[in-house]
Amino acid sequence: MKYILVTGGVISGIGKGIIASSIGTILKSCGLRVTAIKIDPYINIDAGTFSPYEHVVPHITDAVQEWVMNQAKVPVDDDRKEPQICVIELGGTIGDIEGMPFVEAFRQFQFKAKRENFCNIHVSLVPQPNATGEQKTKPTQNSVRALRGLGLSPDLIVCRSAKPIEMAVKEKISMFCHVEPEQVIFIHDVSSTYRVPILLEEQGIIKYFKQRLNLPIDDQPSDLLMKWKKMADRYERLLKVCSIALVGKYTKLSDCYASVFKALEHSALAINHKLDLMYIDSTELERSTEAENSVKYHQAWHKLCKADGILVPGGFGIRGTEGKLQAISWARTKKKPFLGVCLGMQLAVVEFARNCLNWKDANSTEFDPDTKNPVVIDMPEHNPGDMGGTMRLGKRRTVFKTQNSVLRKLYGDAMFVEERHRHRYEVNPELTHCFEEKGLKFVGHDTEGNRMEIIELENHPYFVGVQFHPEFSSRPMKPSPAYLGLLLAATGTLNAYLQRGCKLSPSDSYSDLSDDSSPEKEFPNSETS
Q1: What is the pLDDT averaged over residues 252-273?
Q2: Residue among 273, 421, 460, 469 flagged as catalytic
Q3: Residues 6+ apart with CB under 8 A from 447
Q4: Catalytic: which of 342, 351, 366, 453?
Q5: What are the DSSP calls for 324-372, one per residue?
Q6: Which of 39, 90, 98, 253 is the most exposed place for a label (fewest CB within 10 A)?
Q7: Span 457-478, mean pLDDT?
Q8: What per-residue confidence (pLDDT) applies to 384?
Q9: Active site includes 471?
Q10: Which superfamily, per CATH, for 2-234?
Q11: Residues with Cβ < 8 Å from 27, sequence gap 6 or more?
Q12: Where would I find the H helices in 56-119?
């Protein structure tokens, strides 16, 4: 097993994740089996229950190393073979107190793995103050010095900057950070993140990895990277725009919905559209906001009304739920394409119960434990009163109960799908017959038939809710079917796509990204289809 550790310095959000995934893409294009690990440096019984606005403090090194080695062996490809490379992104910034135990764990681990099997890539910032216009290397020098002081020495230094970096700057970083010039790589701000693997490849990273880790690969990339280049080119030529309103409560920090944003972007690119993602704070759609700040209230509703499609993602807690219910009601009654994920699906059931079944007090027991109509309930294995470690997590199978399902067709008419879960509440199975009589169908269940996994509303362009998180398995060249369906419906091309038997599947649409491929050929507009 070869390990590539990606660390970051100077500031958070420097782009470690993009660098790590780009390296994985490049190595995969060389024919290697690659897996990846993202470490958020928190120690808690269940860090997944944090609000994205919160942070905590840490502990232990042996457990970290053992966990990394075990996870690195887990097959991730269809052939179920053990990966050959594990790319590890260590979150946070070098010097952060909460990351110290993890840095120490990898300081020890580099000797356990041996030098020929362990490589450290440090991502740093090269700022360029407007006052002088000069690209400054001191923050990178200090960051590398701090990293070395903690026992890790970078093999590659990836310098992030707003504009392309000059050769003199590269030589200066090489001299004062004690690495060869070819070990200093520049990644400036580009038109899309899909350009990053191309920039890395152009600076000889394949040749470096081949020598440094003794990898059985060619110096030249495969056809996969050529297709990636064509995809990046096509992304920059897109002219049509599709607007999606994301209604959530963590909208002040867009990274909170990074996976959702990427899944939407993958799907938009597949149908040759640019994504216009409008973040709407769900609390601003509520009547209480109208009384306090009518400007915010009307601006939020203006965004919602002009969107081509609406998405309500997962979340926890009662704050903002009434605004999400308002958005769902708008999507249902105005026949706007809608996708609800996890809590978004549960609230779609609550909204339908209140407004179509006339159960005015219908609610989730998460928000009202004493409701007379508990349409969403605690899972049996959930331990009330203890938030930590109680979620239903990981990849699980969902079985389609009918062939008359839009999502089943989007998944290639599959009998079942396997997607990742992250929840502790579920739709009450004892009440589902009441919904189905009124047209809200539960078309997907778990393997035992007890848990409701997928809802679809009859006589609606696209009203779908899923208990799982399809965004976690979406990829640039293979977008999530659930998100693809939303974008197709939002652009008026879903029916044409389904009538062709979904022949242009997400993977097939990238099989030949020729320069003359046009949106009209691949996904005709509803007016002309």
Answers
A1: 91
A2: 469
A3: 397, 399, 416
A4: 342
A5: HHHHHHHHHHTT--EEEETHHHHHHHHHHHHHTS--TT-EETTT-TT-S
A6: 253
A7: 94
A8: 57
A9: yes
A10: P-loop containing nucleotide triphosphate hydrolases (3.40.50.300)
A11: 34, 85, 87, 209, 215, 217
A12: 62-72, 100-113
